[in-house]
Amino acid sequence: MNGAIAYVGSDRDREVVVVNVASQTAGSLVARIQTDGNPNGMTLSADGSMLYVAQDNKDQVAVIDTATNKITHKIDTRGPAYLDFPANTTGAAPTAVAINRANKLLYAVNAGSNSIAVIPLSGRHAFRTIGLLPTAYDPTDVAFSADGSWMYIINGKSNTGPNPGYGFGNFALIQYITPPGGPFPGGNAAESARLLTNNQYQFQLEQASLVSAQVPPT
Amino acid sequence: MSMRMFRFDELSKAIVLACTILVFAGLANAQSSARLDDDDDKKSPTPPGLYITPTALANAVQQPLNPGLTNYPNFVAGQAVKAVVSPDGNTLAILTAGMNSLYDSNGVVDKAASTQFLFLYDVAGAHKSRPVLEQVIQRLNAHVGLVWAPNSQTLYASGGCDDAVYAYSNNGTSFVLSAKISLGHAPDGCVSNPANQTGLGLGVEPNVAGLAISADGKTIVAANNYNDSISVIDTALGKVRYEYDLRPYATSGAQNGTKGGTFPYAVVFERRHRLCRLRSRS
Question: Model pTM?
């Protein structure tokens, strides 16, 4: 049957659990692969021979040979080596990975540095970040058009700007004293409702977006 | 619906050129690498030691994810978490999973508007370079799971604390909810009551995260983020075949307390039969 093996990232235990799910009634353990960081997004090569695992708190993509279930390469997604990042310059936070089937490059989405690392999978630059594509704030995923010539990058946040209608401080106080019988009776329910109506809580103001762009040619 | 668009290609050509140079400097040639390896070039261009990247890709177009809510026409959803192009290349699906609550004019949570959103964009043909929003599906809860069936006619999305996987199928004109596959941990979905706090831990509700689908579309694996397990789903039946506990002591014979397998998040499926692939290598 197709799809007999599932690779599951264990976020807290820093491992990829390999499970055979070919049976109709029960799964069975194949392997546990320890990773340096917490596994986030993952993707397989087209032939299934390699698994790529983004680890946001290690700024790394692990390359796993699925025949041996061993890590063969660890890719620094912060940027090209010639940028010579100090060891303590961290926070690229790769959260997703995707392969463009047309140019056979791996793209790692750096949520923490608003960029996408471009990584060849063959040749003399294989498994090394060769450049960073700029993105909007907090990119979370990337996908490609059928012919691989366009990329679709989504992000989770935006610069929210000021939120004067939120009434922070007063708002928090009003919320807590408003319920009847609350710890501070006499709250201003009308004012609380008015402030809520503004919908200016910071997370309400964060805007996600889709950026479509031409895949830079190699 | 009207949609604001920001054209990045109106930026100066210099910025675009700088972007291209930065991205592919590593590929250029040994000479440029040698130059960049010079000590002088290692000095940081900014005081805190950070490097500045260019502002946009060439020909980039940004579209805010505005779901077009009637009473909140300017509301733009936040926290897009997953983007997947259908296998036929025609549709781009984007899922949000974040704080998208809204209050109505009385200061009361507007439950009809306070949802997550599944955006479907037409990226076929000429729309490849400028996706066109075709449909927005509202859904109560969501997380990071979103996969297409191989035939591009059904889309599966994880329901987060709903403890369910939702299927949306193409009825000829649009995608509509065609199945809700319960994962069996919480009878009432995302309702905060003891009966639903069946995740592992105190007062924890289940939370289905990543999804993966087999190449034939017959099987889906869902990561039960707060139950330390995966659910293996039969898509034809719309039911869970079985659940596999990822913790070592539960299913691997290890001692109780051995670490491993907790908080499963993402999952991928091998695309072809393992034995066939290994045989073809030899």
Answer: 0.86
